[in-house]
């Protein structure tokens, strides 16, 4: 019984924190989301400075480690992987630090520190991510290290493989994204890919298909475009379209060409165990979960906590600031996105969406940042136009100020060009898949 409780107690706590929806201010959130919201408000006066200090430290230590290669870093595989990195990531971290200082102190051209450009990733996203990463790092071990993944994975195996070409354990990533945060889903997927639980193809599919924005953030999008009363219609439309895309995308390019190799940092493969003779599906799920939980303890939680936090802060936050600033400068001061959006205007006209030329840029700008699609939606005058903008902010999934950076900085083999291709495939399909919901609800 004690061994079963070793699985049940931390796993139940993880489920309660990450996955159980609770009412909050007329919508749904999770306890983890409520904790994050509380922490954002409580520590708001200190978050921006703390984020800036951490981004600058990340850049300084990365430069020192890459140039000097001190023994205390080189001899630790974790710190070596974290700080001794490729020139692109070194440049991105340094640029993130420089941009952050310029934005915070309003140094240099306004095109960099304006709230329309660098101010958003540095002063809005980075402080928010600092809280999310801190809370996530402290709690993610409960969800992944004490048998819950094995239990749900075994039970979900008959459904996940035929529908999505994925192992059953990926169900936990899906739930974490949908009910918690898409960043949480990508972080969990990256961690499990590095450990050898997912192949390159599986991790690619999971990170792109299941990293949907949370139920709480969908309400934010609905409210921002001016349709808070249509929150549930927007939520239903987004999740229905994302489900269809999750079934379709593993069967088309480029996912079908990604090999089932294992290139995670551990260099190993941990396959799902076959169900032995004499075990039912439920019995084997419980047995697998208990076996995993027996090997873990408080040390596992502490190790996962500091490694997850360090990885997210050092590797991700500087890139959100550097790449986010560059993308938003292009979006704000050049007509590039307007030009690229013309084919979407034609497609939107084809399916009879009002304000097609006004809505079209949302389908391109959502790739830069999902919030930009909502900004376009707020300027639309028709309910249908606002509805489409709110939905594409989620159905495209990839946005470069956060999810794209998380994936690019992981061992998942999706480069910038593959992510771009995947996003636009999803965006084109979203035009046709969302159209029936527009006519149904608007």
Automatic annotation (TrEMBL):
Q: Name one Pfam family in it.
A: Gate
Q: Using the record's annotation, list all stretches that form the Nucleoside transporter/FeoB GTPase Gate domain.
A: 128-226
Keyword annotations:
Membrane, Transmembrane, Transmembrane helix
Coiled coil region boundaries: none
Does the record carry Membrane as a key word?
yes
Give TM regions: 7-23, 43-67, 88-105, 125-148, 203-222, 228-248, 311-340, 360-380, 387-408, 420-441
The name this protein carries in UniProt is Nucleoside transporter/FeoB GTPase Gate domain-containing protein
Task: List the InterPro entries hit by this protein, alphabetically.
Answer: Gate_dom (IPR011642)
Organism placement in taxonomy = Bacteria, Thermotogati, Synergistota, Synergistia, Synergistales
């Amino acid at each position: 019984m004690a061994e079963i409780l070793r699985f049940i107690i931390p796993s139940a706590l993880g489920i309660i924190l990450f996955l159980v929806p609770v009412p909050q201010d007329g919508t749904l959130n999770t306890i983890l989301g409520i904790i994050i919201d509380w922490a954002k408000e409580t520590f708001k006066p200190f978050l921006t400075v703390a984020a800036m200090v951490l981004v600058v430290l990340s850049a300084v230590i990365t430069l020192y480690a890459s140039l000097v290669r001190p023994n205390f870093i080189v001899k630790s595989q974790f710190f070596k992987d974290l700080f001794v990195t490729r020139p692109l990531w070194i440049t991105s971290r340094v640029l993130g630090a420089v941009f952050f200082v310029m934005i915070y102190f309003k140094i240099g051209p306004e095109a960099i520190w304006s709230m329309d450009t660098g101010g958003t990733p540095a002063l809005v996203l980075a402080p928010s991510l600092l809280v999310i990463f801190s809370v996530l790092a402290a709690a993610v071990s409960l969800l992944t290290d004490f048998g819950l993944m094995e239990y749900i994975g075994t039970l979900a195996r008959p459904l996940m493989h035929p529908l999505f070409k994925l192992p059953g354990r990926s169900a936990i990533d899906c739930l974490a994204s949908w009910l918690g945060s898409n960043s949480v889903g990508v972080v969990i997927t990256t961690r499990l890919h590095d450990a050898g639980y997912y192949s390159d193809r599986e991790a690619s599919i999971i990170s792109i298909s299941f990293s949907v924005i949370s139920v709480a953030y969908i309400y934010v999008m609905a409210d921002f475009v001016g349709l808070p009363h249509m929150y549930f219609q927007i939520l239903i439309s987004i999740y229905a379209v994302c489900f269809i895309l999750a079934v379709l995308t593993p069967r088309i390019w480029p996912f079908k060409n990604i090999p089932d190799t294992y290139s995670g940092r551990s260099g190993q493969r941990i396959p799902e165990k076959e169900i032995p003779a004499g075990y039912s599906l439920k019995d084997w799920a419980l047995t697998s979960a208990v076996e995993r939980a027996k090997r873990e303890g408080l040390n596992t939680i502490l190790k996962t906590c500091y490694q997850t936090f360090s990885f997210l802060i050092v590797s991700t936050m500087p890139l959100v600031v550097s790449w986010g600033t560059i993308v938003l400068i292009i979006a704000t001061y050049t007509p590039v996105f307007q030009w690229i959006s013309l084919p979407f205007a034609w497609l939107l006209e084809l399916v009879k969406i009002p304000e097609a030329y006004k809505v079209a840029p949302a389908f391109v700008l959502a790739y830069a940042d999902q919030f930009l699609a909502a900004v376009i939606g707020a300027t639309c005058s028709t309910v249908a136009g606002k509805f489409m903008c709110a939905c594409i902010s989620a159905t495209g999934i990839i946005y470069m100020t956060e999810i794209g950076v998380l994936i690019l900085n992981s061992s998942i083999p999706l480069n910038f060009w593959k992510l771009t291709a995947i996003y636009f495939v999803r965006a084109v399909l979203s035009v046709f898949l969302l159209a029936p919901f527009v006519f149904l609800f608007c």
